[in-house]
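As described in the Methods, two query proteins were run sequentially through the folding procedure within a single session, without resetting any intermediate state between them. The first query and its resulting C-alpha cells are shown here.
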Amino acid sequence: MVARVSGVPASTLRYYEERGLIASVGRHGLRRTFEPRVVERLALIALGRAAGFSLDEIARIFASGGRPKIDRQLLAGKADELDHTIRQLSAMRDGLRHAAACPAPSHLECPTFRRLMNVAASGARAKKLGRRLAKR
C-alpha cells in the first residue's frame, strides 16, 4: 500500500528500513505495514535525494526521536554546492552551444572548444584527486 501511495518501490522501502530511515510497525501477510506518517517521511527523503543529500545525511535529519530536525547550515552548504554545480553546468551548456554553431573548420581549431575541453579535463583530475584524498 505505501509503495503504491508513495510511488517508492517495495525494494527501496526495504532498503530504507535496513538503513533506519523508516520503520515498519508490523506485517499483514508478507507485506510490511507502516504508520501513515511514513509517506511524509518518504517525501522528505525524496526531497533530500533530489537536492543531492546522501542517505547518511538524510538519516541524521531523522536521528532525534523520529521527528525531522533539519540543520540549516547543512541546507545552506548544499545550496552553495548547487550554485557551484549550476555555474559549471551553465558554462558547459554555453560552451556546447558555441561549439554547435562555431564556424571553425574543426572543433579542435576553435579556442572556445579547446578551453571547454581543458576545463572538463581539469575537473576530472580534481574529482580523482578528491576521491584519493577522501580515502586517506
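Immediately afterward, the second query was submitted; its sequence and C-alpha cells are:
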Amino acid sequence: MQNPTKNDFPIHDLLRTRWSPRAFDAKAVEPAKVKSLLEAARWAPSSYNEQPWAFLIATKAQPAEHAKLLECLIEFNQSWAKAAPLLIITVAHTSFAMNAKPNRHAFHDVGLAMANLTIQATAEGLVVHQMAGILPDKVRELYAVPADWDAVTGVAIGYPGDPATLNDALREKELAERTRKPQASFVFSGSWGKAVSL
C-alpha cells in the first residue's frame, strides 16, 4: 500500500492512509465486509434525515452483473476498474420524499455516505477509488432508475493490488506522491480569499 500522506497537521491514521489506487488484488471482498461498508454509509448524516442515497452493486461472484455495471463507466475507467472485485454506482434522490420539492443537498449527502463507506473500507484493509467518469444515461437505461434519481459516481473497491499490473501511465500515477492544496488556499474568514489566522 502507498505511504500515508504528508499532512501539515495531525489527522487520524485512517485519513492518512486512505487513498484511491487503480490496482486491485483478485481477492474477493468478503460479504460481511461489504455489509459493513454499506452499514457505515447507512449511518451518514443527511439533510432532514432523508438519506437520499442508493447503491447499485456488483461483484465478480456474479460475472454478468459485474460486466453490466462496468458498462456504466467511461472507457478509460473500464480499463482498470474491471479488475476490482466490487463495483458500485451511487445514486441520489433529487427530490425530498417528504414533500417532492427539489433536494439541492442530495449529491452532498451521497458524498457524506461515501465518506463513511470509504473510512470503513480503510479500516477493513480495503481501498476505494471513486469515479466521476460514468455514463448516467446508461445507468438509467440498464437499471431502470426512476426519473427523480440521478447517478452520481462509480466506485471500485477491493484489496490493494500490484501497481505492476497497470500500464506505464497509470503505474506512474499510482506511485506518485500524494499532494493537496494548502489550507490557506481554501479556508477564508471575513471575506473571500482572506486567509484565516488561528
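Strands lie at 53-59, 86-93, 127-131, 149-158. We note this only descriptively and draw no conclusion about the first query from it.
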